[in-house]
Design brief:
about 30% strand, alpha+beta, Gyrase A, domain 2
Amino acid sequence: MEKVEIRILRVGKNELELEIKGETYTLLNLLQKTLLEDKYVEIAGGKIQHRLLETASFYLKVKGGKQVFDVLFEALDRIRAETVEFRKAFEKAVEAYEKGKA
């Protein structure tokens, strides 16, 4: 896996544009979906200029007086929590599977 590098291209009063190297749609789709579930998010989306390049741009626009960095950090925290929850459920499934094999 290539190291992910993020560069902030533009920050406005209620918007943020990032350049993300080393990432494709896998993480960007999850981030977009999570952000769009937030009532303070007006627009969230990423695009890759060429499918062979692992460089993407991501745009976020918020509303309601919420700080754009705060909204992004909160979304990342929700993704982390969902990942931990998924891991616990998978560990439980593996344990049940292993018991059933014995």
